From TrEMBL:
Keywords: Membrane, Transmembrane, Transmembrane helix. The chain crosses the membrane at residues 12-31, 43-64, 76-95, 101-118. The lineage of its organism: Archaea, Methanobacteriati, Methanobacteriota, Stenosarchaea group, Halobacteria. It comes from the Archaea. It comes from Halorientalis regularis. This is Uncharacterized protein.
Length: 130
């Protein structure tokens, strides 16, 4: 395992409390908004853990692809927050409002585009707009 990847993975594992809290909050809203949830409350914990792993993994992948360090991750944190909220908005629309599951495909495509934009935008361009 590459030492850079290992360092990023460990740093993001320590910071994964935010995705955990967001997952608990997001899934509780979705679950309580559903007329007749198709899964049990105990399975909800599995969904929270899977979502937390996904969101933490998104932070790891974004940092690896963009080459950012933990000290300069403000734009990655903003991207991650937007991605996290976006995920639950899309899940809410699909699971509660009955929209097409293709919205989740659109979400994944938007994530890939966002990571690509982060990768191609130099840090000095971002910092000059502050």
């Amino acid at each position: 395992m590459d030492s850079g990847f290992k360092r990023v993975f460990v740093e993001e594992a320590y910071r994964s409390i935010a995705p955990l809290v967001l997952s608990l909050f997001g899934w509780s809203i979705i679950y309580t908004s559903m007329q007749s949830p198709p899964f049990s409350a105990s399975f909800l914990l599995v969904l929270v853990l899977l979502t937390t792993v996904y969101l933490a993994g998104l932070f790891v992948v974004t940092r690896i692809v963009t080459g950012q360090t933990a000290a300069t991750t403000t734009r990655i944190n903003n991207f991650g927050l937007g991605s996290s909220v976006g995920l639950f908005v899309f899940l809410f629309l699909v699971l509660v409002r009955g929209r097409s599951a293709l919205l989740l495909v659109a979400y994944v495509i938007a994530e890939a585009i966002g990571i690509g934009i982060l990768r191609r935008t130099p840090n000095d361009v971002i910092s000059s707009h502050k």
